[in-house]
Design a protein that fits this description.
Nucleoside Triphosphate Pyrophosphohydrolase, four-stranded mixed β-sheet, homodimer, Transcription Regulator spoIIAA, 28% strand, DUF4743 (chains A, B), seven-stranded mixed β-sheet, globular, alpha+beta
Chain lengths: 290, 290
Protein backbone atom coordinates (compact mmCIF):
# COMPACT_ATOMS: atom_id res chain seq x y z
CA UNK A 1 0.00 0.00 0.00
CA UNK A 2 1.02 3.61 -0.24
CA UNK A 3 0.83 7.00 1.43
CA UNK A 4 0.35 8.77 -1.88
CA UNK A 5 -3.08 7.22 -2.47
CA UNK A 6 -4.46 9.51 0.28
CA UNK A 7 -3.28 12.54 -1.66
CA UNK A 8 -4.74 11.10 -4.85
CA UNK A 9 -8.05 10.49 -3.05
CA UNK A 10 -8.18 14.19 -2.08
CA UNK A 11 -7.25 15.42 -5.57
CA UNK A 12 -9.98 14.04 -7.79
CA UNK A 13 -10.91 17.30 -9.48
CA UNK A 14 -11.31 17.07 -13.26
CA UNK A 15 -12.01 20.50 -14.78
CA UNK A 16 -13.68 18.83 -17.76
CA UNK A 17 -16.79 18.32 -15.61
CA UNK A 18 -17.08 21.98 -14.60
CA UNK A 19 -17.44 25.53 -15.83
CA UNK A 20 -15.32 28.27 -14.22
CA UNK A 21 -17.21 30.51 -11.80
CA UNK A 22 -16.35 34.18 -12.36
CA UNK A 23 -16.88 37.19 -10.14
CA UNK A 24 -16.15 40.52 -11.82
CA UNK A 25 -14.10 38.70 -14.46
CA UNK A 26 -11.96 36.76 -11.98
CA UNK A 27 -12.15 32.96 -11.86
CA UNK A 28 -12.77 32.08 -8.23
CA UNK A 29 -14.25 28.58 -8.47
CA UNK A 30 -15.88 25.85 -10.54
CA UNK A 31 -19.55 24.92 -11.08
CA UNK A 32 -21.01 21.60 -12.21
CA UNK A 33 -23.59 21.47 -15.04
CA UNK A 34 -26.30 20.30 -12.60
CA UNK A 35 -25.60 23.28 -10.34
CA UNK A 36 -25.53 25.61 -13.33
CA UNK A 37 -29.04 24.43 -14.25
CA UNK A 38 -30.27 25.29 -10.75
CA UNK A 39 -28.64 28.72 -10.92
CA UNK A 40 -30.20 29.41 -14.33
CA UNK A 41 -33.49 29.92 -12.50
CA UNK A 42 -32.07 33.13 -11.00
CA UNK A 43 -30.96 35.31 -13.93
CA UNK A 44 -30.82 38.47 -11.81
CA UNK A 45 -28.08 36.89 -9.67
CA UNK A 46 -26.24 34.52 -12.02
CA UNK A 47 -25.43 34.90 -15.70
CA UNK A 48 -24.70 31.67 -17.53
CA UNK A 49 -22.32 31.83 -20.45
CA UNK A 50 -21.24 28.95 -22.66
CA UNK A 51 -17.86 28.66 -21.04
CA UNK A 52 -18.50 30.10 -17.58
CA UNK A 53 -20.96 30.81 -14.81
CA UNK A 54 -20.81 34.43 -13.69
CA UNK A 55 -22.10 36.28 -10.69
CA UNK A 56 -24.29 38.95 -12.33
CA UNK A 57 -22.08 41.94 -13.17
CA UNK A 58 -24.80 44.26 -11.90
CA UNK A 59 -23.97 43.06 -8.41
CA UNK A 60 -20.91 45.19 -7.81
CA UNK A 61 -20.53 45.35 -4.03
CA UNK A 62 -19.77 42.49 -1.64
CA UNK A 63 -22.90 43.39 0.33
CA UNK A 64 -25.19 43.29 -2.71
CA UNK A 65 -23.64 40.02 -3.89
CA UNK A 66 -23.96 38.40 -0.46
CA UNK A 67 -27.62 39.38 -0.16
CA UNK A 68 -28.52 38.17 -3.65
CA UNK A 69 -26.69 34.87 -3.21
CA UNK A 70 -28.27 34.35 0.23
CA UNK A 71 -31.73 34.72 -1.31
CA UNK A 72 -30.94 32.16 -4.01
CA UNK A 73 -29.45 29.67 -1.54
CA UNK A 74 -32.39 30.04 0.84
CA UNK A 75 -34.83 29.25 -1.98
CA UNK A 76 -32.78 26.27 -3.20
CA UNK A 77 -32.43 24.91 0.34
CA UNK A 78 -36.14 25.40 1.02
CA UNK A 79 -37.18 23.28 -1.96
CA UNK A 80 -34.55 20.63 -1.22
CA UNK A 81 -32.43 21.34 -4.31
CA UNK A 82 -29.35 21.76 -2.13
CA UNK A 83 -28.39 20.61 1.36
CA UNK A 84 -29.74 22.51 4.36
CA UNK A 85 -27.75 25.64 5.18
CA UNK A 86 -25.60 25.76 8.29
CA UNK A 87 -25.82 29.46 9.17
CA UNK A 88 -22.05 29.80 9.15
CA UNK A 89 -20.65 32.31 6.70
CA UNK A 90 -17.65 31.67 4.47
CA UNK A 91 -15.79 34.39 2.64
CA UNK A 92 -15.50 33.99 -1.14
CA UNK A 93 -12.00 35.07 -2.14
CA UNK A 94 -9.06 33.83 -4.14
CA UNK A 95 -6.53 34.06 -1.30
CA UNK A 96 -7.22 34.36 2.42
CA UNK A 97 -5.61 37.79 2.65
CA UNK A 98 -7.19 39.00 -0.58
CA UNK A 99 -10.37 41.07 -0.76
CA UNK A 100 -13.66 39.41 0.10
CA UNK A 101 -15.82 39.21 -3.01
CA UNK A 102 -18.94 38.19 -1.07
CA UNK A 103 -19.99 35.89 1.78
CA UNK A 104 -22.14 32.81 1.56
CA UNK A 105 -23.31 29.95 3.70
CA UNK A 106 -20.58 27.38 4.36
CA UNK A 107 -22.72 24.60 2.85
CA UNK A 108 -22.64 26.26 -0.54
CA UNK A 109 -18.89 26.75 -0.93
CA UNK A 110 -18.46 23.42 -2.80
CA UNK A 111 -21.42 24.23 -5.11
CA UNK A 112 -19.30 27.05 -6.50
CA UNK A 113 -15.98 25.24 -6.09
CA UNK A 114 -14.78 28.17 -4.02
CA UNK A 115 -11.61 27.99 -2.02
CA UNK A 116 -12.33 27.11 1.59
CA UNK A 117 -9.97 27.28 4.54
CA UNK A 118 -9.68 25.35 7.77
CA UNK A 119 -7.28 24.82 10.67
CA UNK A 120 -5.84 21.56 12.01
CA UNK A 121 -3.51 20.96 14.95
CA UNK A 122 -1.43 17.89 15.69
CA UNK A 123 -0.80 17.29 19.41
CA UNK A 124 2.49 15.50 19.99
CA UNK A 125 4.84 14.22 22.70
CA UNK A 126 8.32 12.69 22.56
CA UNK A 127 8.98 9.21 23.93
CA UNK A 128 12.07 8.58 26.05
CA UNK A 129 13.63 6.89 22.99
CA UNK A 130 13.15 10.09 20.96
CA UNK A 131 10.18 8.77 18.98
CA UNK A 132 6.92 10.64 18.63
CA UNK A 133 3.46 9.94 20.02
CA UNK A 134 0.45 11.72 18.50
CA UNK A 135 -2.98 12.42 19.92
CA UNK A 136 -5.54 11.06 17.47
CA UNK A 137 -9.25 11.95 17.62
CA UNK A 138 -11.91 9.28 17.13
CA UNK A 139 -14.97 10.81 15.51
CA UNK A 140 -18.41 10.27 16.95
CA UNK A 141 -20.75 7.71 15.31
CA UNK A 142 -23.35 10.39 14.59
CA UNK A 143 -21.08 12.69 12.53
CA UNK A 144 -22.48 13.39 9.07
CA UNK A 145 -18.99 13.27 7.56
CA UNK A 146 -16.73 10.28 8.32
CA UNK A 147 -18.49 8.82 11.38
CA UNK A 148 -16.27 6.61 13.58
CA UNK A 149 -13.19 7.52 11.58
CA UNK A 150 -9.90 8.65 13.11
CA UNK A 151 -9.13 12.36 13.09
CA UNK A 152 -6.58 14.99 14.00
CA UNK A 153 -6.54 16.34 17.57
CA UNK A 154 -8.14 19.66 16.65
CA UNK A 155 -9.70 20.81 13.41
CA UNK A 156 -12.38 23.03 12.03
CA UNK A 157 -13.59 25.09 9.09
CA UNK A 158 -12.52 28.71 8.98
CA UNK A 159 -15.39 31.19 9.44
CA UNK A 160 -15.15 34.64 7.91
CA UNK A 161 -13.89 37.38 10.21
CA UNK A 162 -11.71 35.28 12.53
CA UNK A 163 -7.93 34.82 12.44
CA UNK A 164 -6.61 31.29 11.93
CA UNK A 165 -5.03 31.35 15.39
CA UNK A 166 -8.21 32.54 17.10
CA UNK A 167 -10.17 29.85 15.28
CA UNK A 168 -7.68 27.26 16.51
CA UNK A 169 -8.01 28.48 20.11
CA UNK A 170 -11.82 28.28 19.83
CA UNK A 171 -11.72 24.77 18.37
CA UNK A 172 -9.12 23.63 20.94
CA UNK A 173 -11.48 24.57 23.75
CA UNK A 174 -14.58 23.12 22.09
CA UNK A 175 -13.09 19.89 20.84
CA UNK A 176 -10.49 18.94 23.44
CA UNK A 177 -11.08 21.12 26.56
CA UNK A 178 -7.47 22.24 26.17
CA UNK A 179 -6.66 25.16 28.43
CA UNK A 180 -5.97 28.41 26.65
CA UNK A 181 -2.39 28.69 27.92
CA UNK A 182 -1.48 25.41 26.27
CA UNK A 183 -3.45 26.16 23.11
CA UNK A 184 -1.57 29.45 22.76
CA UNK A 185 1.72 27.53 22.45
CA UNK A 186 0.53 26.16 19.09
CA UNK A 187 3.15 26.72 16.39
CA UNK A 188 1.97 27.43 12.85
CA UNK A 189 3.85 25.30 10.35
CA UNK A 190 2.43 25.75 6.87
CA UNK A 191 -0.56 24.68 4.83
CA UNK A 192 -1.76 21.73 2.81
CA UNK A 193 -4.11 22.01 -0.15
CA UNK A 194 -6.30 19.72 -2.18
CA UNK A 195 -9.14 19.87 -4.74
CA UNK A 196 -11.64 17.07 -4.27
CA UNK A 197 -14.90 16.30 -6.00
CA UNK A 198 -17.67 15.68 -3.48
CA UNK A 199 -21.36 14.86 -3.70
CA UNK A 200 -22.22 18.55 -3.72
CA UNK A 201 -19.40 19.93 -5.83
CA UNK A 202 -15.74 20.80 -5.56
CA UNK A 203 -13.97 21.07 -2.21
CA UNK A 204 -10.92 23.28 -2.85
CA UNK A 205 -9.52 23.26 0.65
CA UNK A 206 -6.51 24.84 2.28
CA UNK A 207 -5.77 23.58 5.78
CA UNK A 208 -3.60 25.83 7.92
CA UNK A 209 -1.52 23.57 10.15
CA UNK A 210 -0.37 23.95 13.73
CA UNK A 211 1.72 21.70 15.99
CA UNK A 212 1.17 21.63 19.75
CA UNK A 213 3.76 20.00 22.03
CA UNK A 214 1.48 18.75 24.80
CA UNK A 215 2.66 17.74 28.29
CA UNK A 216 2.42 14.17 29.61
CA UNK A 217 -0.52 15.06 31.85
CA UNK A 218 -2.67 16.49 29.03
CA UNK A 219 -5.67 14.36 28.11
CA UNK A 220 -8.14 15.68 25.55
CA UNK A 221 -11.79 15.58 26.49
CA UNK A 222 -14.56 16.34 23.99
CA UNK A 223 -16.97 19.07 25.03
CA UNK A 224 -18.92 19.35 21.78
CA UNK A 225 -19.49 15.63 21.20
CA UNK A 226 -17.53 15.65 17.94
CA UNK A 227 -15.27 12.86 19.17
CA UNK A 228 -16.15 9.69 21.04
CA UNK A 229 -12.55 9.23 22.24
CA UNK A 230 -8.94 10.27 21.76
CA UNK A 231 -6.05 7.83 21.38
CA UNK A 232 -2.36 8.45 22.08
CA UNK A 233 -0.57 6.56 19.31
CA UNK A 234 3.05 6.00 18.43
CA UNK A 235 3.87 7.75 15.17
CA UNK A 236 4.92 4.36 13.77
CA UNK A 237 1.41 3.02 14.38
CA UNK A 238 -0.12 6.10 12.77
CA UNK A 239 2.09 5.61 9.71
CA UNK A 240 1.30 1.89 9.50
CA UNK A 241 -2.43 2.66 9.59
CA UNK A 242 -1.98 5.37 6.96
CA UNK A 243 0.00 3.06 4.72
CA UNK A 244 -2.19 -0.01 5.00
CA UNK A 245 -5.70 1.11 5.92
CA UNK A 246 -8.42 3.69 5.62
CA UNK A 247 -9.06 4.34 9.30
CA UNK A 248 -8.84 8.12 9.00
CA UNK A 249 -11.23 10.77 7.71
CA UNK A 250 -10.27 11.44 4.09
CA UNK A 251 -8.16 14.59 4.59
CA UNK A 252 -6.48 13.71 7.91
CA UNK A 253 -3.76 11.55 6.32
CA UNK A 254 -2.52 14.70 4.58
CA UNK A 255 -2.27 16.54 7.92
CA UNK A 256 -0.38 13.66 9.53
CA UNK A 257 1.91 12.99 6.57
CA UNK A 258 2.93 16.64 6.56
CA UNK A 259 3.71 16.37 10.29
CA UNK A 260 5.77 13.21 9.78
CA UNK A 261 7.75 14.81 6.94
CA UNK A 262 8.42 18.05 8.85
CA UNK A 263 9.64 16.15 11.90
CA UNK A 264 11.84 13.66 10.06
CA UNK A 265 9.64 10.66 10.94
CA UNK A 266 9.33 10.05 7.21
CA UNK A 267 12.75 10.66 5.69
CA UNK A 268 13.96 11.36 2.15
CA UNK A 269 16.23 8.32 1.88
CA UNK A 270 13.78 5.70 3.13
CA UNK A 271 10.51 6.99 1.63
CA UNK A 272 10.33 6.37 -2.12
CA UNK A 273 7.27 8.64 -2.37
CA UNK A 274 8.94 11.48 -0.43
CA UNK A 275 9.16 14.07 -3.21
CA UNK A 276 5.73 13.28 -4.59
CA UNK A 277 4.28 13.60 -1.08
CA UNK A 278 5.84 17.00 -0.48
CA UNK A 279 4.72 18.50 -3.78
CA UNK A 280 1.37 16.69 -3.66
CA UNK A 281 0.53 18.17 -0.25
CA UNK A 282 1.08 21.73 -1.50
CA UNK A 283 -0.74 22.15 -4.78
CA UNK A 284 -2.16 25.45 -5.90
CA UNK A 285 -5.89 25.97 -6.14
CA UNK A 286 -6.88 25.09 -9.71
CA UNK A 287 -8.27 28.59 -10.32
CA UNK A 288 -4.90 30.13 -9.50
CA UNK A 289 -3.24 32.08 -12.26
CA UNK A 290 -6.33 32.58 -14.40
CA UNK B 1 9.44 44.64 -0.76
CA UNK B 2 8.33 41.05 -0.66
CA UNK B 3 9.40 37.52 0.17
CA UNK B 4 7.63 36.10 -2.88
CA UNK B 5 10.00 37.84 -5.31
CA UNK B 6 12.70 35.34 -4.31
CA UNK B 7 10.45 32.47 -5.37
CA UNK B 8 9.64 34.31 -8.60
CA UNK B 9 13.37 34.83 -9.22
CA UNK B 10 13.95 31.07 -8.94
CA UNK B 11 10.99 30.15 -11.19
CA UNK B 12 11.77 31.86 -14.46
CA UNK B 13 11.30 28.82 -16.69
CA UNK B 14 9.26 29.47 -19.84
CA UNK B 15 8.70 26.24 -21.82
CA UNK B 16 8.20 28.29 -24.99
CA UNK B 17 11.98 28.65 -25.21
CA UNK B 18 12.68 24.93 -25.01
CA UNK B 19 12.03 21.52 -26.54
CA UNK B 20 11.31 18.56 -24.24
CA UNK B 21 14.18 16.15 -23.79
CA UNK B 22 13.02 12.54 -24.07
CA UNK B 23 14.69 9.32 -22.99
CA UNK B 24 12.94 6.19 -24.15
CA UNK B 25 9.75 8.19 -24.71
CA UNK B 26 9.75 9.78 -21.25
CA UNK B 27 10.12 13.56 -20.90
CA UNK B 28 12.93 14.07 -18.42
CA UNK B 29 14.05 17.63 -19.17
CA UNK B 30 14.15 20.61 -21.51
CA UNK B 31 16.69 21.70 -24.14
CA UNK B 32 17.26 25.18 -25.59
CA UNK B 33 17.48 25.67 -29.37
CA UNK B 34 21.16 26.66 -29.08
CA UNK B 35 21.91 23.45 -27.22
CA UNK B 36 19.88 21.44 -29.72
CA UNK B 37 22.08 22.83 -32.51
CA UNK B 38 25.19 21.64 -30.64
CA UNK B 39 23.67 18.20 -30.12
CA UNK B 40 22.72 17.93 -33.79
CA UNK B 41 26.42 17.32 -34.52
CA UNK B 42 26.11 13.92 -32.79
CA UNK B 43 23.31 12.03 -34.56
CA UNK B 44 24.41 8.66 -33.15
CA UNK B 45 23.70 9.93 -29.64
CA UNK B 46 20.90 12.47 -30.05
CA UNK B 47 17.93 12.47 -32.43
CA UNK B 48 16.35 15.84 -33.03
CA UNK B 49 12.66 15.92 -33.81
CA UNK B 50 10.54 18.97 -34.54
CA UNK B 51 8.95 18.97 -31.11
CA UNK B 52 11.57 17.20 -29.00
CA UNK B 53 15.20 16.28 -28.51
CA UNK B 54 15.63 12.56 -27.90
CA UNK B 55 18.43 10.45 -26.60
CA UNK B 56 19.00 8.03 -29.51
CA UNK B 57 16.62 5.08 -29.07
CA UNK B 58 19.43 2.73 -30.04
CA UNK B 59 21.03 3.53 -26.69
CA UNK B 60 18.95 1.26 -24.52
CA UNK B 61 21.04 0.70 -21.38
CA UNK B 62 22.07 3.26 -18.78
CA UNK B 63 25.69 2.25 -19.34
CA UNK B 64 25.55 2.75 -23.10
CA UNK B 65 23.75 6.08 -22.70
CA UNK B 66 26.23 7.35 -20.10
CA UNK B 67 29.22 6.44 -22.27
CA UNK B 68 27.76 8.05 -25.39
CA UNK B 69 26.75 11.23 -23.57
CA UNK B 70 30.15 11.43 -21.87
CA UNK B 71 31.88 11.34 -25.27
CA UNK B 72 29.67 14.13 -26.59
CA UNK B 73 30.16 16.30 -23.50
CA UNK B 74 33.93 15.78 -23.56
CA UNK B 75 34.08 16.93 -27.18
CA UNK B 76 31.84 19.95 -26.53
CA UNK B 77 33.84 20.93 -23.44
CA UNK B 78 37.12 20.50 -25.30
CA UNK B 79 36.15 22.93 -28.06
CA UNK B 80 34.70 25.42 -25.55
CA UNK B 81 31.08 24.96 -26.67
CA UNK B 82 30.05 24.23 -23.08
CA UNK B 83 31.55 24.96 -19.69
CA UNK B 84 34.41 22.81 -18.42
CA UNK B 85 33.24 19.56 -16.86
CA UNK B 86 33.53 19.04 -13.11
CA UNK B 87 34.12 15.29 -12.95
CA UNK B 88 31.16 14.84 -10.62
CA UNK B 89 28.42 12.54 -11.88
CA UNK B 90 24.73 13.32 -11.64
CA UNK B 91 22.01 10.74 -12.17
CA UNK B 92 19.41 11.52 -14.85
CA UNK B 93 16.03 10.42 -13.54
CA UNK B 94 12.54 11.79 -13.07
CA UNK B 95 12.36 11.18 -9.32
CA UNK B 96 15.23 10.50 -6.93
CA UNK B 97 14.00 7.02 -6.09
CA UNK B 98 13.14 6.21 -9.69
CA UNK B 99 15.41 4.27 -12.04
CA UNK B 100 18.57 5.93 -13.29
CA UNK B 101 18.29 6.53 -17.03
CA UNK B 102 21.96 7.45 -17.38
CA UNK B 103 24.67 9.46 -15.62
CA UNK B 104 26.31 12.63 -16.82
CA UNK B 105 28.69 15.28 -15.61
CA UNK B 106 27.09 17.68 -13.15
CA UNK B 107 27.94 20.66 -15.36
CA UNK B 108 25.67 19.37 -18.11
CA UNK B 109 22.48 18.82 -16.09
CA UNK B 110 21.12 22.31 -16.93
CA UNK B 111 21.92 21.83 -20.65
CA UNK B 112 19.29 19.11 -20.67
CA UNK B 113 17.02 20.74 -18.07
CA UNK B 114 17.30 17.58 -16.02
CA UNK B 115 16.10 17.45 -12.46
CA UNK B 116 18.96 17.97 -10.04
CA UNK B 117 19.00 17.42 -6.30
CA UNK B 118 20.87 18.99 -3.43
CA UNK B 119 20.85 19.13 0.37
CA UNK B 120 20.70 22.17 2.65
CA UNK B 121 20.75 22.38 6.43
CA UNK B 122 19.71 25.27 8.62
CA UNK B 123 21.56 25.48 11.96
CA UNK B 124 19.44 27.08 14.66
CA UNK B 125 19.36 27.99 18.37
CA UNK B 126 16.62 29.40 20.58
CA UNK B 127 17.11 32.69 22.43
CA UNK B 128 16.06 33.00 26.07
CA UNK B 129 12.99 34.93 24.85
CA UNK B 130 11.98 31.99 22.65
CA UNK B 131 13.09 33.60 19.40
CA UNK B 132 15.34 31.88 16.89
CA UNK B 133 18.91 32.54 15.87
CA UNK B 134 20.23 31.06 12.62
CA UNK B 135 23.77 30.33 11.49
CA UNK B 136 24.28 32.04 8.14
CA UNK B 137 27.20 31.29 5.84
CA UNK B 138 29.09 34.07 4.07
CA UNK B 139 30.38 32.83 0.73
CA UNK B 140 33.99 33.34 -0.25
CA UNK B 141 34.87 36.13 -2.72
CA UNK B 142 36.34 33.64 -5.19
CA UNK B 143 33.21 31.50 -5.60
CA UNK B 144 32.09 31.21 -9.21
CA UNK B 145 28.42 31.36 -8.18
CA UNK B 146 27.25 34.17 -5.87
CA UNK B 147 30.60 35.36 -4.46
CA UNK B 148 30.36 37.25 -1.14
CA UNK B 149 26.66 36.45 -0.84
CA UNK B 150 25.02 35.03 2.28
CA UNK B 151 24.27 31.32 2.35
CA UNK B 152 22.75 28.51 4.40
CA UNK B 153 24.92 26.82 7.03
CA UNK B 154 25.46 23.65 4.98
CA UNK B 155 24.58 22.91 1.38
CA UNK B 156 25.72 20.97 -1.61
CA UNK B 157 24.76 19.24 -4.83
CA UNK B 158 23.72 15.61 -4.64
CA UNK B 159 26.12 13.21 -6.33
CA UNK B 160 24.84 9.93 -7.71
CA UNK B 161 25.20 6.94 -5.44
CA UNK B 162 25.06 8.71 -2.06
CA UNK B 163 22.09 9.05 0.30
CA UNK B 164 20.87 12.55 1.09
CA UNK B 165 21.81 12.08 4.74
CA UNK B 166 25.32 10.83 3.95
CA UNK B 167 25.80 13.76 1.59
CA UNK B 168 24.72 16.12 4.38
CA UNK B 169 27.20 14.54 6.80
CA UNK B 170 29.97 14.90 4.22
CA UNK B 171 29.12 18.54 3.52
CA UNK B 172 28.77 19.32 7.25
CA UNK B 173 32.32 18.17 7.85
CA UNK B 174 33.75 19.90 4.76
CA UNK B 175 31.91 23.18 5.07
CA UNK B 176 31.58 23.75 8.82
CA UNK B 177 33.91 21.28 10.63
CA UNK B 178 30.81 20.09 12.48
CA UNK B 179 31.52 16.92 14.43
CA UNK B 180 29.74 13.85 13.16
CA UNK B 181 27.73 13.31 16.35
CA UNK B 182 26.10 16.72 15.99
CA UNK B 183 25.62 16.37 12.24
CA UNK B 184 23.84 13.07 12.82
CA UNK B 185 21.13 14.89 14.83
CA UNK B 186 20.00 16.65 11.62
CA UNK B 187 16.25 16.27 11.13
CA UNK B 188 14.94 15.97 7.58
CA UNK B 189 11.97 18.29 7.05
CA UNK B 190 10.86 18.26 3.43
CA UNK B 191 11.96 19.63 0.09
CA UNK B 192 11.75 22.83 -1.93
CA UNK B 193 11.70 22.92 -5.71
CA UNK B 194 12.21 25.51 -8.42
CA UNK B 195 12.80 25.72 -12.16
CA UNK B 196 15.15 28.54 -13.11
CA UNK B 197 16.64 29.59 -16.40
CA UNK B 198 20.38 30.04 -16.15
CA UNK B 199 23.15 31.00 -18.54
CA UNK B 200 23.66 27.37 -19.49
CA UNK B 201 20.08 26.10 -19.49
CA UNK B 202 17.36 25.10 -17.06
CA UNK B 203 18.10 24.42 -13.40
CA UNK B 204 15.24 22.19 -12.19
CA UNK B 205 16.35 21.81 -8.61
CA UNK B 206 14.99 19.96 -5.61
CA UNK B 207 16.66 20.81 -2.33
CA UNK B 208 16.22 18.28 0.45
CA UNK B 209 16.09 20.23 3.71
CA UNK B 210 17.43 19.44 7.16
CA UNK B 211 17.29 21.36 10.45
CA UNK B 212 20.08 21.06 13.00
CA UNK B 213 19.58 22.35 16.56
CA UNK B 214 23.13 23.39 17.41
CA UNK B 215 24.45 23.99 20.94
CA UNK B 216 25.59 27.40 22.17
CA UNK B 217 29.24 26.39 21.96
CA UNK B 218 29.09 25.33 18.30
CA UNK B 219 30.92 27.66 15.93
CA UNK B 220 31.17 26.68 12.27
CA UNK B 221 34.62 26.83 10.70
CA UNK B 222 35.19 26.43 6.96
CA UNK B 223 37.61 23.70 5.96
CA UNK B 224 37.08 23.82 2.21
CA UNK B 225 37.27 27.60 1.78
CA UNK B 226 33.71 27.85 0.50
CA UNK B 227 32.82 30.42 3.16
CA UNK B 228 34.83 33.42 4.37
CA UNK B 229 32.80 33.61 7.61
CA UNK B 230 29.64 32.50 9.39
CA UNK B 231 27.23 34.86 11.16
CA UNK B 232 24.80 34.03 13.96
CA UNK B 233 21.74 36.14 13.13
CA UNK B 234 18.38 36.65 14.78
CA UNK B 235 15.62 35.23 12.60
CA UNK B 236 14.07 38.71 12.52
CA UNK B 237 17.23 40.10 10.94
CA UNK B 238 17.30 37.26 8.42
CA UNK B 239 13.68 37.99 7.48
CA UNK B 240 14.30 41.74 7.22
CA UNK B 241 17.23 41.10 4.87
CA UNK B 242 15.13 38.66 2.83
CA UNK B 243 12.27 41.13 2.58
CA UNK B 244 14.27 44.22 1.75
CA UNK B 245 17.53 43.14 0.15
CA UNK B 246 19.36 40.70 -2.06
CA UNK B 247 22.14 39.69 0.31
CA UNK B 248 21.63 35.95 -0.17
CA UNK B 249 22.58 33.55 -2.94
CA UNK B 250 19.55 33.24 -5.21
CA UNK B 251 18.10 29.97 -3.81
CA UNK B 252 18.90 30.44 -0.11
CA UNK B 253 15.87 32.66 0.59
CA UNK B 254 13.70 29.66 -0.28
CA UNK B 255 15.52 27.46 2.25
CA UNK B 256 15.18 30.09 4.97
CA UNK B 257 11.56 30.99 4.20
CA UNK B 258 10.61 27.32 4.45
CA UNK B 259 12.37 27.18 7.85
CA UNK B 260 10.56 30.29 9.09
CA UNK B 261 7.18 28.93 7.95
CA UNK B 262 7.73 25.49 9.51
CA UNK B 263 8.78 27.01 12.84
CA UNK B 264 6.01 29.61 13.06
CA UNK B 265 8.38 32.56 12.67
CA UNK B 266 6.30 33.57 9.65
CA UNK B 267 2.65 33.01 10.56
CA UNK B 268 -0.53 32.62 8.51
CA UNK B 269 -2.35 35.59 10.05
CA UNK B 270 0.44 38.16 9.75
CA UNK B 271 1.98 37.15 6.41
CA UNK B 272 -0.21 38.16 3.46
CA UNK B 273 1.94 36.05 1.12
CA UNK B 274 1.76 32.95 3.35
CA UNK B 275 -0.27 30.67 1.09
CA UNK B 276 1.58 31.72 -2.05
CA UNK B 277 4.90 31.09 -0.29
CA UNK B 278 3.92 27.58 0.81
CA UNK B 279 2.67 26.49 -2.61
CA UNK B 280 5.43 28.41 -4.41
CA UNK B 281 8.16 26.60 -2.47
CA UNK B 282 6.82 23.17 -3.45
CA UNK B 283 6.15 23.15 -7.16
CA UNK B 284 6.45 20.04 -9.26
CA UNK B 285 9.17 19.67 -11.85
CA UNK B 286 7.74 20.97 -15.13
CA UNK B 287 8.28 17.62 -16.84
CA UNK B 288 6.12 15.88 -14.24
CA UNK B 289 3.02 14.17 -15.50
CA UNK B 290 4.07 13.97 -19.14
Amino acid sequence: MSYLRHIAACNTFDPAGYRPFLVDGTAVGWVRPATARLLARFPATFRLEDQAVCLHPGLTSPTARSAAVADVLAELAADGSIEPLRDELYAAKTTWHGPELFRLDRTAAPLFGLRAWGVHATGWLRRPDGGYRLWIGHRAPNKRVAPNKLDSLIGGGQPAGLTFRDNLLKEAAEETSMDAALARTAVSCGTITYAMESETGLKADTLVLFDIAVPEDFTPRSTDGEHQAFHLMDAEEVLARLRDGDDFKFNIPLVLLDFCIRHGILGPDDTPEYEALVTGLHREHPAAGR
